[in-house]
Amino acid sequence: SEVPQGTRMVNGSARYNHQGRLIPAPRGSVTSSSSDDERLELRPWVVACLAVVVIGGIGLGIAFLLSGGDSLEEERLEMLDTVRRILTEVPLIDGHNDLPWNIRKFVHNQLGRFNFSEDLTQIDPWSKSNWSHTDLPRLKAGMVGAQFWSAYVPCGAQHMDAVQVAMEQIDVIKRLTQIYSNDLQFVTTAAGIKEAHKSGRIASLIGVEGGHSLGSSLGVLRMFHGLGARYLTLTHTRNTPWAGCCVGNDTTEPDGLAHFGRLVVRELNRLGMLVDLSHTSFRTMEHALNVSTAPVIFSHSSAFAICNSNRNVPDYILKLVALNGGIVMVNFYTHFISC
Predict the structure, then answer these.
(1) How confident is the model over 188-210, as pLDDT tens digits?
(2) What b/e sequence results for 115-136 when a residue is b if at least 16 CB atoms lie within 10 Å of its CB, and e otherwise?
(3) What is the membrane topology noted in the UniProt record heading this document (predicted)?
């Protein structure tokens, strides 16, 4: 809006109250005059004093900011030192990493065309992908102690070649750890994680993502265990014939665990594989927690109360997880933490 003609200005701006009305300056103040033509005049010594005050204030402000900045930087460095000390003593375990699928997508599992030791932020197509955040330099910089590599299979492979694709993804994970054995160590036990961490290598484990990879066969599940897989995510983004997923528009049965799904959970318990409930429906979560005799995990989920995504875990399930002795491995994906 335009300033009305004759309006007095302060610092180049007309003075208004919060309702948008002009506030007349009181007569006798430095912003008022007896006529529109009268000019404000200040004596030289007043100008000099004002300049000293302003310059002094700026100097003190800068000094304060610098001292505060130094203090904040010192606190940050102390915090980093504490984190590094803890991660040197206790392995940091990442529950889910999709790098194996990127290897399949970008180089068709041909590891001769993939250099894991390079900074992939500088190499196409890795650098251009929103889903590519992993290479050895970054794993080391983040002090990752153990990594669950995901043997992921797209839901479209259900009832088709899901078992074959899962086997191929398990294969590429094991070959990757063999090729980079100076930095990675394939393990299948908690003791193996501790051993790898002590030797300065990143413990590498396999998680199969999506129960459709079983082809509804407990025999396939046992084979996955024999090949080194140590968790099974019961669903991905589509229901299996025996477990409901988190996607609300999938109306196919079941919503929770069917009878075969309960058998899968019991067999996972018997084999010593973790039951992973990320991607499952709330009812599947509840059913699995009621059936499982061992602690469960959510390999990459967050809190529903903070972000109401159906990929997250509601409070009443979190309470069951606590009673079960399980854990939720927080997912830092933007859409799961800042709805």
Answers:
(1) 999 999 999 999 999 999 999 99
(2) ebeeebeeeeebeeeeebebbb
(3) Lipid-anchor; GPI-anchor
Q: Of 331, 238, 239, which Cα lies nearest the Cα of 339?
A: 331
Q: Copy the structure tokens of residue 22.
A: 């002009």
User: Which residues, 6 or more positions from 158, have their beta carbon under 8 angstroms from its beta carbon?
Assistant: 212, 238, 240
Residues 126 and 326: their CA atoms lie apart, in Å, by 34
Full-model pTM: 0.78
Pairing label, strands 144-152, 92-97 = parallel
Using the 8-state DSSP alphabet, how is residue 242 labeled? T
The maximal CA–CA distance of the chain, rounded, in angstroms, is: 98
Structure tokens at 331: 């997912």
**Torsional class of 279: left (φ above 0), alpha (ψ -120 to 50), beta (otherwise):** left
As assigned by CATH, the class of the 91-337 domain is: alpha beta
Q: How many CB atoms lie within 10 A of CB 50?
A: 11
45 or 117, which is more confident: 117
Torsion over CA: 183, 189, 193, 195 (sign): negative
Between CA 159 and CA 165, with CA 164 as vertex, the angle to 5 degrees is: 90
User: What would the two tokens of residue 99 be?
Assistant: 């790098």
Is the sign of the CA dihedral 209, 212, 214, 217 positive or negative? positive
Residues present in the chain in total: 339
- DSSP annotation of 134 reads -
> From CA 161, how far away is CA 213, in angstroms rounded?
8
CA distances for 19 relative to 23, 24, 302, 330, angstroms: 10, 14, 44, 47
Sign of the dihedral defined by the CA atoms of residues 158, 160, 163, 164, in that order: negative
d(C-alpha 313, C-alpha 277), whole Å:
9
pLDDT tens for each residue of 209-261? 999 999 999 999 999 999 999 999 999 999 999 999 998 655 666 789 999 99
State how far the Cα of 245 lies from the Cα of 155, in Å rounded to an integer.
11
The whole-angstrom separation of Cα 232 and Cα 278 is 10
